[in-house]
User: What shape does this take?
Amino acid sequence: MKIAFVDSGIGGLSVVAKTYEKKSGEFLYYADSDYMPYGALTETVLKDHLAKVTEKLLKADAKVIVLACNTATAVAIDYLRERYKEIAFVGTEPALKPALCFDGNILVLATPLTLKQKRFLRLTEEGKRQVIAPDCSRLAYLIERDYPDLTAAKRFLDNAVAPYLDCGIGAVVIGCTHYAYLEDYIQKNYRLRTVSGSAGVVRQLCRVAPDVCFGGEKLLRVKSGDESGQKLLEERAKFVCGVEVAPF
Ligand code: DGL
Assistant: This one.
């Protein structure tokens, strides 16, 4: 009985790292590199594909699946919950509510597909605050391609946010797990507060996962959707999470 994390690539490793800060255990991580970036897919393709990923993870003994990806959550979590009632799904959502605790407008960094989903639009309606969402369409791809060298990603982000930096921003919402790797840069370089949903994901995971999923050693079993990317994924997983890594 295992906990599995899914993302299009390395973004969700930032959620796994946060989980290991609180818990130990043998977790699975599926980096769906063949379908990266999720943010550029259609809803139908992403839903159908995530159903196939779920079947794979069921075969690998997953009992809880963490969609460590805002895009996958926004598009497919309701569908997956309905279709696979035997598994618990934990989602990752842009932390707009916590951002509303701060004065000022909210800058949301998320993929184009997340931004147009009902789940996201519902969140924005609650706050009565200006929500600014620049075009970040290439950002996850650049992070995935170059990590840990984030030079190109930083340049892209600088250009994307430049028009909004004087708009009275009270908080920046990290609405894509890949962007977690730019959180320090955003705080230091733009002198803005960031809010991320990953701590909430870990809390929810601890609530829903059976105790047998935790404990023992910290071992992360990883699989890349693209076989040629397996070794690189293992290196990156070790680097981000700082635990023992093996394939599954
Ligand atoms: N990491 C994913 C998210 O949180 C998406 C990246 C992608 O577009 O593949 O939305």
Notes: The beta strands are 2-7, 25-31, 62-67, 88-90, 105-109, 131-132, 169-174, 194-196, 218-224, 244-247. The first strand starts at residue 2 and ends at 7. The chain has eleven helices and ten strands.
